[in-house]
Amino acid sequence: SDHQLEYPNAPNEMDWTKHYPAHVDSQTGEFTGKVEIADIGCGFGGLLVDLAPEFPDKLILGMEIRVQVTQYVEDRIIALRQQHLAENKYQNISVLRGNAMKFLPNFFYKSQLSKIFFCFPDPHFKQRKHKARIVTNTLLSEYAYVLREGGVVYTITDVLDLHEWMVEHLDGHPLFERLSTEWENQDACVRIMRDSTEEGKKVARNKGSKYVACYRRIANPEL
Ligand code: SAM
């Protein structure tokens, strides 16, 4: 349950300084960065760790609901920063414990993000549990709000039924447009997303299939 979770009232009340201490002005103590990439349900953080060197100038955030898992990722990032202190690496990734299905617009401004990842989300197989899925019409509107025009939603799963569900909902949403297989094949993040998450590695070990779908956030229709 998430009743003890803390949320900022609005994005300007969110204190990112402890998440990205290398991006704090030493004079004023103010946060100088901006989170641009979000990994929703980041699990053990494999994607964050592999995205970090790919986007050294961008701040990347994992959101994870499980306490121990979040703690694990936090420790993992601190250790990586220590190991790479001289090169100042891994200062651009962090993790936050939270329920991404709630209050996302409390953390992020409109159009703040350029990429949102949903890697191997929980499938919630039973019909009556479908409303618990991380991609629903209502939530897609929130994701569209925090994503900038031209930004991308990345999805990957080994569960065909969930893949079809996500495609159906994203196809049906007026603010998203599916990207082609050719686009997927040339995109560095798709490659990283296929191979770097802990769940993705497990699926590969079990020789399972991985279904990818990526969508571009298109412009709001003229009123
Ligand atoms: N993305 C990771 C990977 O590919 O290895 C983890 C996949 S795991 C099957 C799904 C993760 O989503 C779990 O770690 C779970 O705790 C987290 N999760 C589920 N619902 C969530 C929510 N509403 N907000 C944040 N995280 C959530």
Give your account of this protein's structure.
- It is a single chain.
- The protein has helices at residues 46-54, 67-83, 104-107, 137-146, 160-172, 181-186, 188-196, 198-205, and strands spanning 35-40, 59-64, 93-97, 113-119, 147-157, 176-178, 211-217.
- With 223 residues, the chain is an alpha/beta fold.
- The chain has a single domain, classed as 3-Layer(aba) Sandwich (Rossmann fold), CATH 3.40.50.
- Strand 2, helix 2 (67-83) and strand 3 (93-97) form a beta-alpha-beta unit.
- The radius of gyration is 17 Å and the shape is globular.
- The structure holds S-adenosylmethionine (SAM).
Describe the secondary structure blueprint for this structure.
Layout: E1 35-40, H1 46-54, E2 59-64, H2 67-83, E3 93-97, H3 104-107, E4 113-119, H4 137-146, E5 147-157, H5 160-172, E6 176-178, H6 181-186, H7 188-196, H8 198-205, E7 211-217
Parallel strand pairs: 1-2, 1-4, 2-3, 4-5
Antiparallel strand pairs: 5-7, 6-7
Helix pairs in contact: 1-7, 7-8
The structure holds S-adenosylmethionine (SAM).
Residues 41-43, 46, 63-66, 69, 99-101, 119-122, 197-200 line the site of S-adenosylmethionine.
